[in-house]
Write a structure and sequence with these properties.
Length: about 600
């Protein structure tokens, strides 16, 4: 039987490639025609659905866009309200910190001179040392008085009015008639230090403004020192900080916020800084529409206003229709505004239409799957008839097998070559990753990797409702160390400190990174306040054990480090920069309180 089939093939009377085709493709083509018809009906129905949904899609997205920009403005208003309400607390904290610094200076001067100079001579040294010290953008200064209401030379230091020095100045009253010196005396007599709050004249104007002060008694000389500032002036500084924050504030697709006051004067515009100082009330678009007049209406409403106009789109660098929204913040006479371009909404429309198209494609694929199942059934039916043709193909199997052996060897060699190249590439990728995430000098993680890991850990702890801690540390008087031992010595010092941090951070999840210059940072996942303070203490002890000589330090003859520690359970809406700011503030307190110490700062969500 086999030899007969072979003879037919050799004579060319029967070509094996035709036989399977005739048996298989006639029924398959019939199924395909039916399946294509069904598929076309399916596709047509989904296209009708696409057309119906597209009609309402743009209006729906327009409403979504309006809601989005309104919510964003409300978020900014909440941030501004938080800063305004906390301005008095921030001023009190800053005043106390300033007095604590000056008090430390007075203690040092007294300790150095009390055995060789009289009290009055020491007071003269303190007065002249603090006379020219200024803060709060030059407004702030220290004043010193005797702790004796009967003293004729009650006033010792009054830098803003030196003519009052040596005067009794006991009858100074605030706007409400309250004796300022008497209030200070009562606080100092009771507690030795404390806050004062009174209404005072702002400059030479007959205008009442709230002023805050902090006073502290220096018992060895029976004098007290104080400092104060107008809450209004301090709040102006907070306004500047808020405007600076808003200047760098971006949300969804690089949208921005701009601010103008109730007169229409633009206070800040991040995309077009040259508009600052101009009046929004006269702005018109390319069609002559005075949209600025509409923006001015925001000052007279509590609900906010929407404005539609043509304006340059910074993303596409072309003019496009923009929907703006503005709402007033009456306590500062500000108006907060933002907007969204129709082009970005239309882009979303296209994306959703594409999603709908994908659904059509999915339905088509399902239809194809059904067709495939039908074709499989046809194949099963035709399998009986295909057996005859299979015997004819067996004549050629030997030749194909011989060829396949060669191909197997070739493929094996090719696979081995690919594996070698893949292994080399993986090694190169690992090396590049290490270079990209490691500080070249210290051999620990760099700032870029620090930001990436803190961002990931922040959201992980937010999901798990768990505590994450951050330690910021700074080598004390590192500039003086560099000046004394040279940059090579400074580099070696940084490497030693980095090695200690890496040694103390024993858990795989703990991250030690060089934050910048002589400043380092440690990310401590799943670590509470006590755990973070323990790690900071261990690092401080290890640094001390190293006894690295620092002859030019102002606080020790060996190298020391200051630490700022903060812990938080992240909440939705918070950013990881909140933890960095808290740790940085704690570090600032550690430096201000004498360095070589550990300070903890609570975060405020």
């Amino acid at each position: 039987m086999i030899s007969g089939k072979k003879a037919l093939v050799e004579r060319g009377l029967l070509k094996e490639r035709h036989i399977p085709g005739l048996i298989m493709w006639v029924p398959i083509l019939s199924i395909l025609i039916t399946a294509i018809t069904i598929s076309l009906l399916f596709i047509a129905s989904f296209h009708n659905l696409l057309e119906v949904e597209s009609v309402n899609l743009e209006e729906s997205l327009l409403n979504e866009g309006r809601t989005q920009i309104k919510e964003e403005v409300n978020e900014v208003l909440n941030y501004i309200e938080f800063n305004r309400l906390n301005s008095e607390k921030l001023l009190n904290d800053e005043l106390k910190n300033r007095i604590d610094i000056a008090y430390s200076i007075m203690e040092s001067i007294y300790a150095y001179n009390h055995s060789s100079k009289s009290d009055e001579e020491i007071i003269d040294i303190i007065r002249e040392t603090l006379r020219d010290v200024r803060f709060f953008e030059g407004r702030g200064y220290y004043f010193i008085h005797r702790f004796d209401l009967d003293s004729k030379d009650f006033t010792i230091l009054q830098p803003n009015m030196p003519s009052l020095e040596g005067d009794h100045q006991l009858d100074d009253k605030d706007f409400d008639g309250k004796l300022i010196s008497e209030s200070s005396y009562n606080i100092l007599a009771a507690k030795g230090e404390g806050f004062l709050s009174f209404n005072f004249y702002l400059d030479d104007q007959n205008k009442k403004e709230k002023k805050l002060a902090y006073v502290k008694l220096f018992k060895p000389l029976n004098i007290f020192i104080g400092a104060g500032d107008y809450l209004n002036y301090f709040e102006e500084g907070i306004k500047k900080d808020v405007l600076l924050w808003l200047k760098n504030y971006k949300y969804r697709n690089d949208n921005y916020i701009f601010v103008y006051d109730k007169t229409g004067t633009i206070l800040m515009h991040p995309i077009s800084p040259e508009l600052a100082g101009q009046n929004v009330g006269g702005f018109r678009d390319s069609n002559g529409y005075n949209f600025g007049k509409e923006y001015m209406k925001a000052s007279g409403t509590n609900s906010g206003i929407y404005v539609s106009y043509d304006w340059l789109d910074p993303g596409s660098k072309t003019e496009g229709t923009k929907i703006g929204y503005a709402q007033s913040y009456k306590d500062w006479n500000w108006n907060i505004a933002t907007g969204i371009y129709m082009a970005s909404l239309q882009k979303t429309v296209i994306e959703r239409q594409n999603n709908l198209s994908e659904r059509v494609k999915l339905a088509t694929l399902r239809t194809i799957l059904i067709v495939g199942i039908l074709i499989l059934a046809v194949f099963i039916i035709t399998l009986i008839f295909a057996r005859f043709t299979a015997s004819l193909f067996s004549i050629y199997n030997q030749h194909i097998l011989e060829s396949s052996e060669y191909l197997k060897d070739f493929n094996l060699a090719l696979e081995n070559k690919v594996k070698e190249k893949t292994t080399e590439l993986e090694k190169k990728n690992i090396e590049l990753e290490q270079i990209a995430t490691t500080d070249g000098l210290c051999g620990i993680y760099n700032r870029r990797y620090f930001d990436s890991i803190l961002n990931k850990e922040w959201y992980r702890h937010m999901r798990n409702n768990s505590t994450i801690s951050l330690i910021m540390c700074d080598i004390d008087y590192f500039k003086q160390y560099n000046d004394t031992y040279g940059h090579q010595g400074g580099d070696e010092c940084l490497q030693i400190v980095a090695g200690i941090l890496k040694k103390i951070c024993k858990r795989p999840v703990d991250i030690a990174a060089r934050y910048g210059g002589e400043e380092f940072a440690l990310i401590l996942p799943q670590t509470d306040k006590d755990g973070a303070l323990k790690i900071a203490s261990d690092i401080q002890a290890e640094i001390s054990n190293q006894k690295i000589r620092h002859a030019s330090s102002f606080i020790s003859d060996i190298l020391t480090i200051s630490f700022g520690v903060s812990s938080i359970v992240p909440e939705h809406g918070d950013e990881y920069s909140l933890l960095i700011k808290s740790a940085d503030k704690a570090l600032y307190k550690a430096k201000a309180n004498g360095r070589n110490r550990i300070e903890f700062q609570d975060t405020c969500n």
